[in-house]
Amino acid sequence: MSEPVRESMEFDVVIVGGGPAGLAAAIRLRQLSPDLSVCLIEKGSEIGAHIVSGAVIEPRALAELIPDWKERGAPLNTPVTSEDMLYLTETGSLRVPLLDKVMPHMANHGNYIVSLGEVCRWLATQAEELGVEIYPGFAGADVIIERNRVVGVVTGDMGVTKEGTPGPNYQPGMELRARYTLFAEGCRGSLTKQVMAHYDLRKDVDPQTYGLGIKEVWEIPAEKHRPGLVQHSFGWPLDDSTYGGAWLYHFGENLVSYGFVVGLDYANTWLSPFEEMQRIKLHPAFRQHLEGGRRISYGARALSEGGLQAIPRLTFPGGALIGDSAGFLNVPKIKGTHTAMKSGMLAAESVVEAMKTDRVEPGAFTEKVRRSWLWPELRSARNIRPAFAHFGAKGGAVYAAIDAMLLRGRAPWTLHFKHEDSDTLKPASLSEKPFYPKPDGKLTFDRLSSVFLSATNHEEDQPVHLRLRNPSLWKPVNWDVFRAPESRYCPAGVYEAADEATNPHLQINAQNCVHCKTCDIKDPAQNIDWTTPEGGGGPNYPAGM
Amino acid sequence: MKILVPVKRVVDYNIKPRVKADGSGVDTTGVKMSMNPFDEIAVEEAVRLREKGAASEVVVVSVGVQKAQDTLRTAMAMGADRAILVLSEESPEPLAVAKVLRKLVEKEEPGLVILGKQAIDDDMNATGQMLAGLLGWGQGTFASKVEIADGHARVSREIDGGTEEVSLTLPAIITADLRLNEPRYASLPNIMKAKKKPLETIEAAELGVDMKPRLSVVSVAEPSERKAGIKVGSVGELVEKLRNEAKVI
């Protein structure tokens, strides 16, 4: 296709992504400098449409950004009232005693159970009141780099047909030019990937390691609902070498958030995060909460688990990476909203300073992060996730307790990640198949009925947004060695190995994609490139997610 | 000629509607809302008529809550020139909407009103017909093709087993069916421009229309779940099951 003629618009700052980091940055920019033109684009059909999180959030950053958030009606309505960490065996569970001493990161006093999608929708109204221009339904398709400086992004073309030719409703993407561009795409952002590669931002840091979170929202009978209850688990059904666990939060009007996270450095190619997530609901510790209820929503998203050691260089000429695009998640706390927001706020402050002196790179951002509470928080947490990678689930838990009680996060050493998550799978012949029970349609479900609840839709007539860099690699690597792991780790049934017996080949049902980015991360040949589909496509998560 | 296009804010067509636990209606809290798809087709048709020179102005109107202004902005981003929001309770009934529209028609004096044939939330399929009745205008419902010439609208109507051609003397009412056109994307520059287009807000009470509902909802229930199918091994087994289990042959 020939290069289309693009319209172009100029802003002071363009922000890619309407999650907590992007919205916090936008709000801070207009608070500090009400004359700045700030444009935020979001690939979801509306703000919140692509947001999935547990979520128990710490209101620290929010209180710094909007001190009167309570009066302004921020949807933080369910304070945490009780909290358990369970170690599961197949039929029983052990409660971790003295949780606030042994796992102080897990103490949730003063925190709130929220729907992060709702929080983002609320943040967006605050941003718009301050004059931020928010455009949902537009995906960032390309980064504009001129004279080695990022000068904006190009939004995706609309109305391109399957064959890649302009259709009757063709609408070329637009150049959004900016003095500074902030990437707030969340974990494994597609433009962030381009920027990281161009400026070699990951030089001298640990490889990023990821997790995949899968979530359901349930509505349960009122008499069973205990708002404020937080329950986490580790152990069964994962083996000792696989990092992960489940959560269950009672919140809102008879709602329960249930979900499961697995570290994407898992080794067993037969493991299916989706089916693990389903079968944990059959455990008595979870079943008792959900039985009699009905599932109303489903979603999935990858998250960055590398912590401090894996945070790349944060700035480059013309902009910065914020939130989980950079990887600010506090893993042992399993929280990233407050850190994402804080990083967005600090980036905004740095951009305003850089603008005053017309500096190309908002370099003060890195220094501001190091001097804020963000850094010591992530620093004291830095060894816990790698300890699980080094010592297994039980060893990791013991390490975490020692780290908390004796070292108080100030260990003189730092544990490192050595492998990309795409390198950790063992061949199918060397791995054991877990037993996954058939869905019962009451507590457990199959993939397709789940994706249906995510209200996912993509315009049918458009090029496949999941691209194989080299299609001929699939058979010898993914099939012959690993037996199509993508058909198991994809929580949306996008990848199917078809004609297994006669002529195995990969079928990609891109329309089902819930934008979790796991394939881009875990594919053993690093052959799958997740690019943005037409804006407005993907899941339409309702409030509650 | 001026064209008036009424649009409704409804639960987005991608969303699986969820019935409230007490069966009083569909839960819309936090659910994505957007323009009724048939109304998008109506807006597109009106904009195309203006682009072809058959009309001079496209005015969109919505009767509903404050948030319906987002829907009006979308219509203006697609090309409508200005908008009127008539504030009322959520989901007013077709007769009340038709009465509001009659008042606006008297004020705006359009030569044509194009509506979606029905809204996907309550599937009433009534507002256009009621408005035609109230105004005493001709109507071309379920339109799949519209041509304007010499003070007439020639409308192809989708009817059972074919199409029917009708000729209406303007002013007239047209309701849009699915095949009338494929609505365009609102481009980013046009969304930006739409923010600056005029949007007038009035209260339904100012028009002197009684918006009180005349219908009462007895109960709303989700369709009962279908049982999963089974695979049969042979024709014999199929016949046996149809005869003895399903008892249909």
From TrEMBL, chain A:
Gene3D superfamilies: 3.30.70.20, 3.30.9.90, FAD/NAD(P)-binding domain
Keyword Protein biosynthesis tagged: no
InterPro entries hit by this protein: ETF-QO, ETF-QO/FixC_UQ-bd, ETF-QO/FixX_C, FAD/NAD-bd_sf
SUPFAM superfamilies in UniProt: 4Fe-4S ferredoxins, FAD-linked reductases, C-terminal domain, FAD/NAD(P)-binding domain
Enzyme Commission number, as recorded: 1.5.5.1
Keyword hit for Transit peptide: yes
Cofactor comment text: Binds 1 [4Fe-4S] cluster.
Cofactor: FAD; [4Fe-4S] cluster
Entry GO CC: membrane
GO MF, any single term: 4 iron, 4 sulfur cluster binding
Top-level taxon in the UniProt lineage: Bacteria
Domain ETF-QO/FixC ubiquinone-binding: 210-303
Function: Accepts electrons from ETF and reduces ubiquinone.
Stated name of the protein: Electron transfer flavoprotein-ubiquinone oxidoreductase
Source species taxonomy: Bacteria, Pseudomonadati, Pseudomonadota, Alphaproteobacteria, Acetobacterales
UniProtKB/TrEMBL annotation, chain B:
Reported function: The electron transfer flavoprotein serves as a specific electron acceptor for other dehydrogenases. It transfers the electrons to the main respiratory chain via ETF-ubiquinone oxidoreductase (ETF dehydrogenase).
Pfam families recorded: ETF
Names of the cofactor(s): AMP
Similarity-based family: Belongs to the ETF beta-subunit/FixA family.
Lineage, opening ranks: Bacteria, Pseudomonadati, Pseudomonadota, Alphaproteobacteria, Acetobacterales
Oligomer status and interactors: Heterodimer of an alpha and a beta subunit.
Species this protein is from: Acetobacter pasteurianus (Acetobacter turbidans)
Occurrences of domain Sigma-54 factor interaction (ranges): 58-227
Annotated protein name in UniProt: Electron transfer flavoprotein subunit beta
